[in-house]
Write a structure and sequence with these properties.
- This protein is α/β, with parallel strands linked by helices and about 130 residues long.
- It has a single domain, classed as 2-Layer Sandwich (Transcription Regulator spoIIAA).
- It has helices at about 35-50, 70-85, 95-105, 120-125, and strands at about 5-10, 15-20, 25-35, 55-70, 90-95, 115.
- A hairpin with a 3-residue loop joins strand 2 and strand 3 (about 25-35).
- It comes from Actinophytocola glycyrrhizae.
- This is Anti-sigma factor antagonist.
- Pfam families: STAS.
Length: about 130
Amino acid sequence: MPDINDEARDDSPLTLRCETSAHAVVIHAVGEVDHPNAIWLSEELTRVGATISPAQSLVLDLTGVSFMGSATIAALIEHDRQCRQSGCDLRIVTGNTTVTRSLQRTGILDLLPVYRTLSEALADNG
């Protein structure tokens, strides 16, 4: 099972926390996702995505994110592609205007599986 529980790297403005249930694995991201942290987030999405069962969705909760750089957006696109290829169900929770506007500005808001709230993402039966 994934194990990120309140993990932060030294001097990092990003914290990741993972929750697991029978239907989903949720990665909560809080803070700033600049380039170095986008790489770390991408590594964690890959690692956690490899451990989930077909009955589970991989949910990335960005509600607590205050900054999201272009490397993060590239990572989201790549992980959406990877999940589709492997049969994984990736769900991205924007949760705030900072994240939503970043995705809108790049024109990919409608291309990714985006939800406004965590409860919406968890309630979607696909």
